[in-house]
Amino acid sequence: MKVFVALLFALIAVSISSASANDFQCGVYRCPDMHACVCDAGVFRCVYRSQVEVSVKNVGHRMVKDVTIGTVGMNLKDNNAIWGISVEGRDIHLPSYVDLAPGQTHQFGYINKGNNAATLYVKNVKIN
């Protein structure tokens, strides 16, 4: 019974200390809040990522068939770090199946390395 109580006390102490810690273990490092732990070829490091959600809204009075959006400073985490949009070189486009009626919105997102979102600007709009 004494062993059980001691074990229970040790488990509670570990749980409380783990729950109250703001940082988490990353190899021999401790990552601060808002950072991710990455193990690359056995090397651990803490990195900062920004997840961004973007809305494209048709504020005109005609159907929009495609929008070409230019990017500056887009440094994606990897090839799977962008969704809901088509990527062509340094530009992004609405997916081919998306047409925006007046007032309609399309959302996409991406995960950028670092703590800044990319600068996005409209390069071309194809109207029907």
Features:
single chain; 128 residues; Immunoglobulin-like; 4-stranded antiparallel β-sheet; 1 helix; 10 strands; 48% strand; elongated; Carbohydrate binding domain-containing protein; Dd_Spore_Germination_Stalk; carbohydrate binding
Describe the structure.
There is one protein chain. With about 130 residues, the protein is mostly beta strands. It has a domain at about 50-125: Immunoglobulin-like, CATH 2.60.40. It has one helix and ten strands, in the order H-E-E-E-E-E-E-E-E-E-E. The protein has one helix at about 1-20, and strands at about 25, 30, 35-40, 45-55, 65-70, 80-85, 85-90, 90-95, 105-115, 120-125. It is elongated and about 75 Å long. The termini are far apart. Residues about 15-20 have low confidence and may be disordered.
SSE diagram, text form:
Blueprint: H1 2-20, E1 24-26, E2 29-31, E3 35-40, E4 43-57, E5 64-72, E6 82-83, E7 86-88, E8 91-93, E9 105-113, E10 119-127
Antiparallel strand pairs: 1-2, 3-4, 4-9, 5-8, 5-10, 6-9, 7-8
Oligomeric composition of the shown chains: single chain
Encode the helix/strand succession as letters: HEEEEEEEEEE
The number of helices is: 1
Largest sheet: 4 strands, antiparallel
**Fraction in beta strands:** over 45%
| Assigned CATH architecture of one domain | Sandwich
Coarse structural class = mainly beta
Calculate Rg over CA atoms.
23 Å
Low-confidence segments: 16-21
Q: What name does CATH use for the topology of one domain?
A: Immunoglobulin-like
Q: What is the 3D form?
A: elongated
GO biological process, one term: extracellular matrix organization
Organism: Polysphondylium violaceum
GO molecular function: carbohydrate binding; extracellular matrix structural constituent
Keywords: Signal
